Structure formats: C-alpha cells, structure tokens
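User: Could you walk me through two proteins back to back? I'd like the raw sequence and the structure tokens for each, with a short line separating them so I can tell where one ends and the next begins.

Assistant: Of course. Protein one, sequence then structure:
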Amino acid sequence: MNESALYYEEEDSFWQGVKDCVPTLLGYLSIGFAAGVVEKTAGLSIAEIALISLILYAGSGQFIAAGMIAAAHPISAIVFTIFFVNSRHLLLSAAIAPYFRKQTIGQNILTGALLTDETFGVAINHAQHKKQLNYKWMLGLNITAYLNWVLANIAGGFFGQWIPTPEKYGLDFALPAMFIGLLILQIMSHKKYFVDIIVALSAVLIVVISSFLFPGSAGVIIATIAAATIGMVIERWR
C-alpha cells in the first residue's frame, strides 16, 4: 500500500471521525444539558429523558416537546410541530447524499438517521476538495455526537433540580458559538470571501423578511435555499 493510500485511510478512519467531532462536543454537552434541565422541569423522569434523547435526538425538537408536554398538548400536535421544525434535515441530507453514493442503503440510512446540524457542518467542511466521504469516518463522527448528546441530556435531567435557569450561565449561547466557529473555519479553508459575505448577508436579509410572512422555521428553510442559489449564480457568472 503506497503512502497516499495510507494517508487517506488514516484521514478518513473511524477514530479520525471521533477526533473531528471533538470541537463540537462543548455545544452538545451544554445544549444537551440545558435540554435535560428543561425536560426534567416539564415532568419527565430520567428514563424518559434518556429515551427521548435516544429516539428523537434533536435539540430544538426536544425543547419543543418538553414545552408542549408540560402544556398538555396532544401527541399529534407535538409530532407535527417537531416534524415541521426539523424539516430542514431534508435539505441537509440532500446536500450530503452525493458524497455517499457508493455506500449501501443500510449505511446511508444509518448516516441519515444520526445526521445533525453539527455533524453536517463538520462533514461539509471535511468534504472540501473530496468527491466522497468515508462511511467509517462519518460513523465515528455521528456516534460520538450521539453518545455525548444522550449523556448530556441524562446529566441535565439529573442535576436539573439545582439549575432552574440554565440560560443564566450562558448555556443557551454555546450552540450558536459552535456554529460560528465552524462557519469561520469553512470560510477560511476555501477563501472565497466575496461570495461568502454576499451569501451570508442575503441569508440574513431573507430570513428577516420571511419571518414576517411565514410561521416557525419556514423562513430559515427559505433563506437557506435562496442564499445557496444566490451563491451558486454568483460563482457561475464570475
């Protein structure tokens, strides 16, 4: 086996995926902890908190579920609301799918089931100048994030009785801070500052305007599609 093949195998191994997930762990731990606190406040037991984090595995979805459970909303309303809020994952999956065309259906299902905003951000950044992503690397990335999220939820549920207001300690800003870091790293890696700035400004403007016209997170989805289209058009015309 030549040196380039060895480098590729090490760069895209399962354990490398685990290592590449480390920068996102603070976001998972803090937001997961806050979610556990909120779920405990909503009346869920530790076992129920563990179960909802294992099955639902969605930060915004779990916050919504906890609030709606506490308000005694029907299950159908909870399911519909969470589905709508997390419909952005259809876009994430569509964007990352081309990098896994050579994988089996079962592998793609597992990759999609464990895909989150954070692991998507790491994967897209890792996919720069690559035609495909290694399944083992993605599995290491996803599983590390998944386990940390579940443990953080359980810890939040356990210690939640002593932390009634997690936002007081800045835990609610950990997730945005993590995404800002990932965005900066991605911008610096391909150095297309003009396009990136135009896309970012377009996304902000569109999401603000859309928030007055559409409910919930629909504005975010619209802004994502529109800003990405603007960036593509600019690159084609340059």
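----
Protein two, same layout:
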Amino acid sequence: MSARVLVVEHQGNAGIGLLSDGLAAGGAELVVVGPDAGRPLPKSLAGFDALIVLGGSMGPEDDAEAPWLPDARALLAEGVANGTPTLGICLGAQLLAVATGGVVATLPGGPEIGLCTASFAEATPRTAGDPVLGPLAGTEPPVVQWHYLEIAELPPGAELLASSDACRHQAFRLGEAAWGVQFHPEATTPTAEAWVFEDADGLERLGRAAEPIVTAVRDAEPELRRHWGALAERFATLAVAGAAARGHSAA
C-alpha cells in the first residue's frame, strides 16, 4: 500500500526538502501544488490520503499577496474535520491555526531565525503516545527557524506538544490526526542559503550575519536529517495506514 499526499508549496525555495526521503520510505506518493509548482490547489482533499502545507514568506491571512491562501485554509480545515493526516509547517501551522479558530500575531521578542531547539520536555502521557511527535517526548532536538509571526493563541481543543524560549507554541496537535509545527523540519543547508539571500534586508536590520546562520545549519544537518526524516516516515506510515483502512492505494 501507498498513500497520495497533497503538498501545498507556497514558493519554490520552501519545498519539501529533507522530508522527501522519509516520506518516500514510509510509502507516500507526493502531489505538489502551488504557484511555483505550476498546479493550482484542489478544492477538496478527495482522492488524497494526507495533506502537508509548507512554509512561505507571507502571513497566513495575506490573501491579496497570495490569493491561494483561502483554498489552503479550507483544505486544512477539511483535513481536521475529516481526520485526514495533516501537517502544517511554519506558515502552514499558522494557516492551520487561523483556519480552526486560533490567532496569529507578530512575535513580541523579534523573529526566530536559524538553528535553534524546540523543547518537547514537558511531555504528557498523550504526548508520549503521539504517533508522529511522540518519540521526541522529553527531548530538545535541533530545529531550523525562520518566522516573524507566531501562533499567539492555539485553536480551541489543540494540545501543545513543544515550546521554545522565544515562542511558546512550537508544535501542537489538533484532533486525532492534525499537527502544526512552527519550525522547519524540512530545511537543509541549501534552504538556509536561499533564505539568507531572500531575507538579506531583514537580517541586516537585525544585525545578523548570513554566514554563521548557514554554517550552523550545515553542521547540524546530519542530526536534523535523523530527527526529521524519521518524523516524515512516521507521518507517511500513518497516511498509508489510513489509506489501507479505507481501501485506497496510490499504487
């Protein structure tokens, strides 16, 4: 069995990255849509077994700048309502929050940029049993961050799974099969290189040099691949199990 996973990509330099190998190993067949992918977002999740919404430089309600965002929010809300395995990454997590009653605002202490950590240390029994993020319970793995906004209020019923000193809502679960992560588990060294170029003006305003940011990600990449490749495989396995239960297959 395999699973058809819809991937919403907002811009070409924020693709699926290092998650691709883990998703493939878990049995996922990716269908990438979005402006740079040259394929419009579908109006529903019909025919798909899972949904991943990636990051981007826009805000979750910048519909004038990114007119596909209402469709992305609708797909995320559908995923939560139907119990379809759903993962929102950075902007995707913010879109998930907004689509289900949460609030996104400017990060009060300034942006999180570059290599950081996310703390899953305050684990509850439910966290430890989570099929996607549970293996991280009690740990503080490295993560790549690049966000000026935060999820200031989680959607009703959401459960917090990870935090950082700068941003409390680093990972959350909503319902049985939807997750949002504020960090970038997909990011690689080339991703960091692309983002320091794109955000050069912002880094200059912050007094941050590009080279140390890229170097830190490069040095951590083996560990990043270990943690987040495994997460991708677990997510794909969950999608495949759901497809099997419904009698679907991408094969």
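The chain has a mean pLDDT of 95.

Let me know if you want the two compared in more detail.
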